[in-house]
Amino acid sequence: MGLGRTRAVSLVGLTGHVVEVEAHLAASVPGFVLVGLPDAALAEARDRVRAAVTSSGLGWPQRRITVNLSPASLPKAGASFDLAIAVATLAGAGVCDPVRVADWVHVGELGLDGRLRPVRGVLPAVATAVAAGHPRVVVPAANADEARLVPGAVVRAAASLAEVAVEHGAELDDVPDVEVALAEEVPVPPRRAPDLTDVVGQRAARWALEVAAAGGHHVLMVGPPGAGKTMLAERLPGLLPDLDEGEAVEVTAVHSVAGTFRPQDGLLRRPPFENPHHTATPASVVGGGSGMPRPGAASRAHRGVLFMDEAPEFSPRVLQTLRQPLEDGELVIHRAGGSARFPARFQLVLAANPCPCGRAVGKGLGCDCTALARRRYFSRLSGPLLDRVDLQLEVLPVTRADRAARAAPEATAPVAARVAGARAAARRRLAGTPWRTNGEVPGAWLRSHGPGPGAHRDLDRALDRGLLSLRGADRVLRVAWTLADLGGLERPGPAEVGQALLLRTRGQGAA
Ligand SMILES: [Zn+2]
User: Is 179 inside a domain boundary?
Assistant: First the structure.
């Protein structure tokens, strides 16, 4: 009888757990049993492991093999247990040194030819192992750069099972040559982030974007096609501050699990930008998929910007699913083996045409939409969603005068510097609360820490005349605080409240 032990990591959402993998080899009728509540993918692991061991020239032990993954209660998904199962088995058979094998954590999927295939989520998996006091990790070659981003990890990379086995003391005359399995191709990000200097004219919209960045406010932009809504939205991440260390690790982990991360670029330190198409399915926005679930666009936008162009055209189910992350900052994907959680705290930018045909601009001469059609179009953006949007702005096409102007438009850098100053002021004021930006502050707190005397007058008048709901008034106050932070004021006065009112009453749908 032989016993081999090693460790692997189970990853559900971004939550990892170290899993003990134990192989027990008995002199009985040959067989291979996996226990520990494995999912369907893990059952397939049995065939992959056996084929990989044989292809590597290591010989499959002709014994009764029982591999146990514990704790059994833990949901286990994906193929990243293959390597640990193979290595534990080889240790139990006496092919590898059981002491050395027990000392390492093994992560990786095996090909039938014995090559080690890269897996998603290596960054959070290795971080889990290190945090649990097991810093020595063997990973597939294509995942090595990513694994090495985890501070404190001792990483050994290998291209094949044979290579790992030899490291652990197996005697092989000939280590089979395998092609190194490459990671999924991830598009190269543009070298230069889009800059505000490309935006001609649009004074009001540029100002609104600066306010949105300073206060972390969600935004609705309404304007005809071609007015530049997408161009503006793409430039919002550039106005946001760098991610701090903790945020960078978290955002990188999300993209590691999503398979949208290039380890050669290092940790992601800038706020991401995601713009799902309006035909996107709920799963592609929320996340899902078989095996180890992938985070969707809403999670990939974590700590960055989620831009939804032609927002009323998104399916109502997609729009509805955004309520949870807007409230809790996370998405929970429920499935049979347990639920996966992904962080999803993003700044939402919605864009819409002024009407279904898109021509209701100015006097709206070219538009032939009925009043009912227009109302119906905007009603798709339900109340609960718009309740979270502090800023509503109209984006009009660039005028001829704007195009003729000589002065170059202000670039991103000076605007980002003003944003950073305003954010620092808000942070000082909100110290000791769970919030960091004005966009997160709930109404009750706003009302008890109100603006100066006199500042309420316009707000009260708008409330009295029914132009504003109580929630609407809260949103105006939030923006007024951001305007005060941008202006270096201790608290908003009548001017800030007046300006904030203008920044949300864009005509129709004011509430
Ligand atoms: Zn129209």
Answer: no
Centre of ligand 1 from the C-alpha of residue 230, in Å: 20
**Size of the chain in residues:** 511
What is the distance in A from the centroid of ligand 1 to the CA of 370?
8
Extract the runs of DSSP E, i.e. beta strands, from 319-434: 330-335, 338-343, 347-352, 389-394
Distance of CA 358 from the midpoint of ligand 1 (Å): 5
Is 429 within a domain? Answer: no
Same domain? 214 vs 116: no
Q: Residue 385 Cα, ligand 1 centroid: separation in angstroms?
A: 23
Q: How many CB atoms lie within 10 A of CB 398?
A: 15
- Please check whether residues 297 and 249 belong to one and the same domain: yes
Cα Dmax for the chain: 88
What's the total number of domains in the chain? 3
The mean of the pLDDT values for the chain is 89
Q: Which of 112, 147, 167 is the last residue of a domain?
A: 167
Rounded to the nearest angstrom, the distance between the alpha carbon of 373 and the centre of ligand 1 is 8
At 419-464, the pLDDT tens digits run 999 999 999 999 999 999 999 998 888 878 766 667 777 788 888 8
Ligand 1 center from residue 509 Cα (angstroms): 16
Query: Are residues 66 and 211 located together in one domain of the fold?
Result: no
- On whether residue 42 sits in a domain, the answer given is yes
Distance 502 CA to ligand 1 centre (A): 24
Q: Which of 49-63, 149-163, 187-201, 239-253 has the lowest mean pLDDT?
A: 187-201
Tell whether 54 and 133 lie within a shared domain: yes
- Degrees, nearest 5: CA angle 433-427-244: 100
Whether the per-residue pLDDT at 507 is higher than 50: the answer is: no
Question: CB neighbours of 374 closer than 8 A, spacing ≥ 6?
Answer: 354, 355, 356, 360, 508
CA 490 to chain centre: 34
Span from the CA of 361 to the centroid of ligand 1 (angstroms) = 9
Ligand 1 geometric centre to CA of 359 (Å): 5
Banded model confidence at residue 509, pLDDT cuts 50, 70, 90: very low
Query: Beta partners for 116?
Result: 110
pTM over 0.85: yes
Instruction: Report if residue 503 sits inside a domain.
Output: yes
- The pLDDT assigned to 508 comes to 40
For residue 338, the domain's CATH number is 3.40.50.300
Q: Which residue has the higher pLDDT, 448 or 303?
A: 303
Ligand 1 center to 297 CA (angstroms): 30
Segments forming the whole domain that contains residue 269: 196-410
Same domain, yes or no: 478 and 381: no
Output the CA 225–ligand 1 centroid distance in Å.
Answer: 12
Cα 371 to ligand 1 centre (Å): 9
Q: How far is the CA of 222 from the centre of ligand 1 (A)?
A: 13
Q: Which residues pair with 31 in a beta bridge?
A: 64
Residues 272 and 313 in one domain: yes
pLDDT reading at 91 higher than 70: yes
